[in-house]
What does this fold into?
Amino acid sequence: LRATGYRGNIVVANYYSLDYSDPFQTGLTAGLNQAITSSASTYGATVADVFSAFQTVAESNPLAQGRTCVAGLLNNSNPAQNPPVCDEHPTQSGHKVFALVVENAYHPHH
It folds into this structure.
């Protein structure tokens, strides 16, 4: 984008972990996010830290204990199962968290 002459704001969202209670999976996601942050800063882009926002929600719910699916951030399987089994896509609640993080990254003084 910068090579085209665009000088405006660029916001890049990082990835959230599907399960913050799984250190291996979360570590892989964190490594990917380090690459995103490094590249974004090289080109003057802002990173919307969705990883930390989802982690906060998932870890603040005592029943979820870091599991984004149980915290209601990811779509439950169809038909729903107990315990829940989710795919990787956010629910409406997850989308709201995601959107707020992107908005705050784009307009940091709101």
Observations:
- The chain has three helices and four strands.
- Strands lie at 11-13, 46-48, 74-76, 86-90.
- The CA atoms of residues 75 and 87 lie 6 Å apart.
- The helical segments are 23-42, 50-60, 92-106.
